[in-house]
Each structure stands twice: as structure tokens, then as C-alpha cells.
Amino acid sequence: MGTATLEYYQANRERFLEGLTRLLKIPSISTLPEHQPDIRRAAEFLAEELRTMGMVGVEIIGGRPGQHPLVYAEWLGAPGKPTIVLYGHYDVQPPDPLDEWISPPFEPAVRNDNIYARGAVDDKGQTYLLLKAVEGFMKAEGRLPLNVKFLIEGEEEVGGEHIEQFVPAHTEKLKADAAVVCDTEMFAKGLPTITNGLRGLVYTELEARAAAHDLHSGQYGGAAANPMQALAEIICGLKGRDGKIRIPGFYRRVKRPGKLELAAWKRLPFSAKKMLKDEIGGTALVGEKRFSVIERMWSRPTLDVHGFRGGFTGEGAKTVIPAVSTAKISMRLVPEMDPKEVVRQFTAYVKKLTPPGITTKVRVISAAPATVIATNNHYVQLAAEAMEQVFKHKTVYMRSGGSIPVAELFSVHLGTPVVMMGFGLPDDNIHAPNEKFHLPNFYGGIESVGRYLDLVAAANGK
After folding, report:
1. Can you spell out the DSSP letters for 419-461?
2. DSSP class per residue in 271-334
3. How many angstroms separate the CA atoms of 404 and 89, rounded?
4. Burial, 197: exposed, middle or buried (Cβ in 10 Å; 0-12, 13-18, 19+)?
């Protein structure tokens, strides 16, 4: 990498932070319809940044009601050199509960080398560092060492329906040698990490319905079915206290990782007690006791309840038996598990568990399979080398319990290796109050991606 680009990264840190701050102020919450204008504003902000830094073919694609726009840009001025797709997302989770934030979620605040805001690390900060890594070459050297295509979405937090339609229909436009997904984390502070596996996801809404309308619990209690009680019974039937999911056939395709991968996980600097104290803040860890905590988080399927809705939850009392109640329930999947099969199994067992007087309905909000990336891939190994150069430690490999559907999408439809370079930290409070991004990782991420692009270009010339 040229000295001029490295100097540009150093000289422009304050400006990079100012730009990220402006992006974080936009409440681009993808799941709430009232924030559709903010989604558009975030897309336009990124498109303008891409134009200013010298990208060409900048487009804001789509954005009709109910669909969030994609942002695309390219620079193809290095004939004969590889082409890399750079992916991120600009949409964010809702910030609730608001009263737990130290500073407001859309008023970014810097404290102790961290920037706090919703979307700081997931994924605006990591998306923005991709732009700044490329900008360094364009502004300092007038060109890139290879070809780059940006694809940035606004629906990752709600299932990514738009990008799922776009990628298969535009494989020629997106044709590349590798794809970089910057939406993961390091295993620990200062320890460069490549994520080589992600769990899949099936996210559902389960509705239980009883009467035609809400009922007086004094007049009808003891005779009328209660859908909230029914949901509680169904959920307890889906998973036991031992952490085992009771859906028939659910574990049929589940396999343990190989001995070498399990051995590598044991060498990681991990303490379950420290995680419980510093990251979770709870009193006990749960789950399948015959598997290690890391296995439970990375290579075992899960079933979790995210919320209940129904009845009366306001101040005071209202003696009502609700007519309908819903629960948000998701299942994380591991390799070989088929999301469609899991939906069928889940739906069938919910029906079997449904008590008399109750009608249940399952709505699938999103579904995606798990992903595992080979670590002996040339593009993955160069990413590990780039991160080692910046963070001065040997890069480790880990799986993530989370889900990034676009990784499998790129792999299947573009046929490209997917490189998951991430710069978050375990205590960054992703999807929770006081989300943050460690600023040394933000700046280190910019340099790491820049070095990666340079290494890929140089390796191609050998």
C-alpha cells in the first residue's frame, strides 16, 4: 500500500468520524413504516458520499412503498485486476427501551474511545469504513489497485427481501472474484478475527386466536379460552428447561463441527464466567449442558421468544381475556438445516400443541440458511494477513451465532468466496441500548480493508 494512502487515513480521522456521526443521526429503522423517509435519507447520504469520493455508476435502486432502496456504485478502472464486491447495510434496529440509553440513540456521543449510537457498529460504522478505505486510494492516488463494486442495503434487519430478489436477477452486474461482508466482530479486543460460519434464521410471528372479541374475565373466566395462556403453553412445549428443542425431527440434520475446528475454539481466549459478568450481566448461563458454551452459541440450533403482544399492558387494571395474542419466535439454524423444512416442522408441532378453543396461525417473516466458509480460500487468507498487519496479532477464525443472509446469497448466486471481515467487539451491545463502536477498531478497520484491497491486487499480479 502506498504511503500516500496510509497518510490520508491518518490525516482524515477527524473528518471520517464527523461523516459517521452525520450518518448515525439518521434514524433509519427499517422495521417501522414511519421511518421510510429516514431510510431514503440514509441511502441518499451514502450515494452522495460514493459520488464525492470518485465512484461511478452510483444508483439508488428501488424504494417503492414497503421496499427499502439498495445503493450501488462501482469503479472498474483496473482492467485485468480482480473485482471485489463490498457489502454493508444502513438500516438499524429500533432503539427501545429508550430509558436505558445513557445518551439518546440518534445523538451520537463519544466516550472512552467509543462512539455510542444505534447502528454505530451494526452496521453503519462498518459500512462507512468500507467507503473510507476506498476513498483513501481515490483521493491520495487517484485510482484503486483493483476493481470495486459497492452493494449496500436497507433491509438487513427485516429479512432483506429486496436484495434477495436483486442479486439473482443481476448476477452479471455484480460479477466479482470475491465479496467482502463487513458486519461481524472480533473475538476479543485487539484480536483480528475472520468469521467463517454463520447460523441461519427462521423468524416467525405466531398468532393465537380465541373469541370474536375481548371478553370480561369475571363474566367469562373459567369457560372462555385465553390465547395468551395458550401461547405460553405452546412455547413451553416447543423447548424444555434443558434447552432442548422438542419439535420432532428438528435435530435430524444437525452435525457437530469437526475435531480440528472444535480444538481451535478451545484455544480461543474465552471465559464463560467473564462473558456472563461483562457482556450478559446475568446470573446463570443456560442451554444444552453436554455442549460447550461456544458450541451452544455458534454450532447448535436455537429457539427464542422475542416478544408477546395482546391483552392489556397499561397502568392500572383491566380485567380482560384477549381475543387474540401474538408472539415473535425465531429459530437459529446450523449447516445442513433447510429453512423450509424447519418452517414445516415448526408449524406442524404448533398445531399439535394448540389447546382446544384456540386457532393458531404461523407467519414467516424471514428465512435464510446457515453459511460456512472454507478458511483455506486465497481471498480469506489475504484478509487474515491484512488484519494481522494492522492489529499486530495472528488472525483467528470463529463462527458467529448471528445470521447474515447475504453471505449465502453471494455464495450461491455469484459463485464468489465470501470474506467476513468484522471489527465489532463482543461488548458493543448490538441490538441493545448503548450500542457502540470502538473507535480504534473503526480506524483500524479502514486501514485493514485498504491493505486487503492492495494485497489482493498484488497477489493477482504474481
Report:
1. EEE--B-TTS-TTSTT-EEEHHHHHHHHHHHHHHHHHHHHHHT
2. -HHHIIIIII--S---S-TTS-HHHHHHTS-EEEEEEEEES--SSS---EE-SEEEEEEEEEE-
3. 11
4. buried
Torsion of CA 75, 79, 83, 86, to 10 degrees: -10
- DSSP secondary structure, 149-195, as one string: EEEEES-GGGT-HHHHHHHHHTTTTT--SEEEE---B-SBTTB-EEE
User: Helices in 25-159 by DSSP H: which ranges?
Assistant: 36-52, 125-141
Q: Which amino acid is at 133?
A: A
Number of H helices, E strands in the chain: 14, 18
Residue 306 dihedral angles phi and psi, to the nearest 5°: -105, -15
Bridge partner residues of 372 (DSSP): 197
Question: Is the pLDDT reported for residue 462 higher than 60?
Answer: no
Residue 335's identity, in one-letter code, is P
CB atoms within 10 A of CB 178: 22
For the chain, list the domains and their CATH numbers: 3-198+370-460 (3.40.630.10), 200-254+301-368 (3.30.70.360)
Query: What are the residues facing 224 on neighbouring strands?
Result: none
pLDDT digits (tens, 9 = 90+) for 205-223: 999 999 999 999 999 999 9
C-alpha cell at 204: 416467525
Could you give the dihedral angle defined by the CA atoms of residues 37, 42, 48 and 52, in that order, rounded to the nearest 10 degrees?
160
Q: Among 108, 186, 136, which residue's Cα sits nearest to residue 1? A: 136
Q: In the prediction, which pLDDT does 461 show?
A: 55
Q: Any residues with CB less than 8 A from the CB of 76 and at least 6 apart, and which?
A: 56, 83, 147, 149
More confident: 159 or 171: 171
Cα–Cα distance measured from residue 111 to residue 323, given in angstroms and rounded to the nearest whole number: 47
